Amino acid sequence: MTSADFRTNPENFCYRHPDRQSFVLCQRCLRTICPECQTQMPVGVICPECLREQQQQSAKVTRMPRRRGPARARATDTRPLVTYALMIVTSLTYLVTLIPGIGDTVTAYLAFNSAFLFPGIGFQPWRLLTVTLVHASLWHLVLNMLALWALGRSLEPLLGRGRFLALYLLSALGGSVLVSLLAPGTWVVGASGAVWGLLGAMFVIGRHLGVNVTAIAILLGLNLVITFLPGSGISWQAHIGGGLVGALVGFIFARTRAIRVQRRQMWLLIAVAAGLLALLIVPVLVYG
Known about the structure:
By secondary structure, the protein is an all-alpha fold. The chain folds into two domains: 3-75, no CATH class; 81-287, Rhomboid-like fold, CATH 1.20.1540. It has 13 helices and two strands, in the order αββαααααααααααα. It has a two-stranded antiparallel ribbon. Helix 8 (161-182) runs parallel beside helix 12 and helix 9 packs parallel to helix 11.
C-alpha cells in the first residue's frame, strides 16, 4: 500500500474527524477513532457513540446514577500511560541498583548475557527483556528515558497502548537476539535497543502516512555514528537489532491497518516473536 492509497482510505482516519489519522479502533464498533474520541475502558478504547450506548444500557440494568467528576475524567484519560509506566519502573530499578549491598546483585540478575541462554550454565531467559531495566550510569538512564518519553508521547496515542507495548518489548527482544548472535558472552545493559525500535517504527509509519520523516532520519543517522565511535562502549548489536525489529513491527502495523486484516496483525506479531526466539538456537548450537 502506498502513501497515496493510505490517505484515500477512510478506514485510516477518525470517523468523527476525517482529517485526523489514527491506528486505533473502537473495541465495539471497530471504527477508527483519534485520541480526542477515545474513552479508555478496561479492555481497550471505545468511541463516544458506543460509550453513550453502554452507559444507557448500564443505567437501565442497574438504575445507578451516572458517575461524574474524577471517575469520568479517568474514563476519558488518553495519556500515554504505558510510556509513563515504563519510565517509572525503569527509573525505580535504577535507584534500587544504587543501594549498597543490593544494587550489584540486582544488576547482575537483570542484565543480559547470552551465556545464560545455555542450559548447562544456567537458563535465565528473562534477561532478554529485563536488560531494559538496568543502566550503566545516570546519564545512560536519563538519555534513554528522555527518548522514550519523546517517542512514546507520539507513538502510543497513534498505535494504542497494547500495540505500543508489543513494539517496545519486541524491539528489546530483537536487540538481545542480535547481541547473542554477533557478540556472545558480552554483558549488555540499557533500554537502548527498545528505544531504537521505537525510532525505527516511527520512521516506517511516518513514511507510510506520508509525513516528513527527515528529522527522524537525521536522528537515526547521528545515533548510528555515535554508536560506532571507537571507545564508545555502546553495544551496536543491541541498537541495530532493536531498530530492525522496530522497523519490521512498524511495517506490520502500517500494512495491517484495515479492519479486515486485524487478526492477521496479531499473528504476524506472534510470528516475529517466535522467529526471534528461534534464532536463539543458533548461538547455542554454534558456541555451546
